[in-house]
Description:
The chain is an alpha/beta fold and 210 residues long. 31% of the residues lie in helices and 30% in strands. The chain folds into two domains: 1-6 and 26-98, Rossmann fold, CATH 3.40.50; 100-108 and 116-180, no CATH class.
Amino acid sequence: MKDETKNHWEKIYETKVETDFSWFQQYPKTSVDFINLFNLPKEAKIIDIGGGDSHLADALIELGFVNIFVLDISAKAIERAKARLGDKAQLVNWIISDIAEYEPPTTFDFWHDRAAFHFLTGESQIKHYTISVSRAIKPDGYLVLGTFSEGGPKKCSGLEIRQYTETSMSHLFNNHFKRIKCIEENHTTPFNTVQNFVFCSFQKLTRPVL
């Protein structure tokens, strides 16, 4: 299953340009708005999950952040991002890994995930993700998740996804995080269709709720 998933994404990134992807954004305004909301120091460690071909790394560099990490299952996606950034690519720590199996070697001040988490549909995958998040984010650090809402698509890039609401998403993380802010957003795709997302932000508790 692991190899099938990786091969699926490698093929997609080898055969499509970025504007072929429904999730494409020239500028990730919602994500940047959340980052600005938390007033993070420029030295903050920020990781973007599933962000290989996203433009968030570009925005973070322009904002002056100096500890940027980008994780993606697809080596091709990361290769494309590096090519786009040119010399600036060396300012990013690139990680090729399946998030369903990733064991973070360090801790982060900010964990960002737009449209990766909802591809995890198995209970064991979701549990691994929530455990990784609880371990990888520093106390008082932040988590921002963006997924398809119950009004959004049920499939993406040929794969089943799991839809979320503010309540269902919050329930997964409430032992280790307090919810700060949730919004719904209509994303207009490059081919002029509309996808409804739910974004939620959380702050890591200094002590878990037992």
